[in-house]
Amino acid sequence: MKRILVTGGLGFIGSHTVVELQNAGFNVVIIDDLSNTTLKVLDSITEITGKKPDFYKIDLRVKDDVKNFFENNKVDGIIHFAAFKAVGESMQKPLDYYENNLSALVYLLQEMRDRNIDNFIFSSSCTVYGQADELPITEKAPVKKAESVYGNTKQIGEEIIEDASKAHGINAIALRYFNPIGAHESIKIGELPLGVPQNLIPFVTQTAAGIRKELSVFGDDYPTSDGTAVRDYIHVVDLAKAHIAALQRLINKNNKESFEFFNVGTGTGSSVLQVIKAFEKASGKPLNYKIVGRRKGDITAAYADTTIANKELNWKTEKSLDEALASAWQWQLKQ
Ligand code: UD1
């Protein structure tokens, strides 16, 4: 049985991916520094799958600790989620973002090189495309200069992986996520935003739950059907399954290049107002919202062309926006 290291495996996307890995028959070892999650998530994963993953609390910026982990653990592949991800914060603390998001990546790849470990999956983002000139966004769309330090860490991260994969024969896939939302159907794991949520769906569910007074809709003067910005919201379980598909592609040596990247979305764009309406339907609760000005750095519209990911990964989304929103609401009610 293959043993896979999942860094950031107690985070939102990481925890859902650990569950899917275990369901697919992989042994999992998690590294997490618990900076944006809690150890309770490990118990929740165990409740869902009936099998406790191995766990190490390690800060991946500490090179000796990374080395020590690999001295004591044999793994057949790595899925690397551990990273800071708040766009606004990344502009205030650029050096912390570069240090955390890039030094950890380099240390992991060095261990892979030194120990002949293959199979690396990287959490990237559709933010690398900026406002693409054509929609839906294919993998051929050019990478644009990053609008944020966070986005830049994803672009530079992909470049580091590409260079390392060519030089050291490490097969790697970057998954460029669109907007992950929702929670596992067991409602035992989900998104745990610290403080005031920056992303739309946690803000929506917290507003419906009465934790926030009202949702601010950032701009209704975009050139879209109803004036609000359009995104591609993907159920986190569908996204988690894309990681298993990517890992299997590498393990089975079905990859065409040593470094590949795929767009992971649903292929459908939804506006903020469409999301609000769908949420009200899924939850049966009216949402208190008001239209305010645009948020700096936001783009008009982004949704994926999933043709290549569907074909090459032999994967497609199975869950609807309504299901995703209903699960996010159930998760909120449980908090
Ligand atoms: C944001 C990041 C992106 C990152 C992703 C991670 C920015 C500019 N982009 O994407 O780089 O990869 O999160 O999940 O921060 N909205 C509101 N009111 C709110 C919150 C959001 O109207 O209170 C709107 C936004 O303007 C946007 C949509 O909802 O149109 C989605 O926003 P969000 O969930 O923050 O995701 P992105 O901005 O797409």
UniProtKB/TrEMBL annotation:
Top EC group: isomerase
Pfam family name, one: Epimerase
GO biological process, one term: galactose metabolic process
Sample GO molecular function, one term: UDP-glucose 4-epimerase activity
Metabolic or biological pathway: Carbohydrate metabolism; galactose metabolism
Gene Ontology CC terms: cytosol
Required cofactor(s): NAD(+)
Keywords per UniProt: Carbohydrate metabolism, Galactose metabolism, Isomerase, NAD
Stretches of the chain forming a coiled coil according to its record: none
Reaction it catalyzes: UDP-alpha-D-glucose = UDP-alpha-D-galactose
EC id: 5.1.3.2
InterPro entries linked to this entry: Epimerase_deHydtase, NAD(P)-bd_dom_sf, UDP_G4E
Annotated ranges, domain NAD-dependent epimerase/dehydratase: 4-257
Record note on quaternary structure: Homodimer.
Family: Belongs to the NAD(P)-dependent epimerase/dehydratase family.
Protein name (Swiss-Prot/TrEMBL): UDP-glucose 4-epimerase
Lineage: Bacteria, Pseudomonadati, Bacteroidota, Flavobacteriia, Flavobacteriales
